[in-house]
Design a protein that fits this description.
146 residues; mainly alpha; two-stranded parallel ribbon
């Protein structure tokens, strides 16, 4: 929130060897944690600390901060969340411009009803046990992605 970095807690699901591709760095326990979304469980500690809320734009790596446009920075006007409007409406299968548009929609329309809708859709997605596509996602490289 307000461009203030924080440490995001997650279970490690990839090996440390950065010379390998993301897909090559997977290991069986990590695959299970990602498939069941249990890798997100330590973020409850972030919620207790006040770094995260249950619902809000997903926090992105700090390396992206200098790449945001002024409009994209608006996603930091609200507390980031474990799940958000972009996650329940495409997650890793939509382009960066659509993710930012959904994050900004949330910022501009934040409400208890929208939060409940996002939480309900999140539960449905978790119970669907869809294949994890996050390792195939392209990194955000700035405004040329939008």
């Amino acid at each position: 929130m307000n461009n203030k970095p924080f440490l995001l807690y997650k279970f490690r699901t990839l090996t440390h060897d950065t010379k390998m591709s993301l897909l090559e760095r997977r290991f069986p326990l990590g695959n299970f944690l990602r498939f069941t979304n249990l890798d997100e469980l330590p973020q409850l500690f972030n919620i207790l600390r006040g770094d995260l809320s249950f619902v809000g734009p997903r926090p992105l790596p700090t390396e992206y901060l200098p790449l945001y446009s002024e409009e994209q920075r608006r996603r930091h006007e609200v507390r980031p969340g474990v799940t958000g409007w972009a996650q329940v409406n495409g997650r890793h299968s939509i382009p960066w411009k659509d993710k930012f548009a959904r994050d900004l929609y949330y910022v501009q329309n934040i409400s208890f009803r929208l939060d409940m809708t996002i939480l309900f859709k999140t539960i449905l997605l978790i119970l669907a046990f869809k294949k994890d596509q996050s390792l195939l996602e392209k990194k955000f490289t700035g405004n040329n992605d939008v």
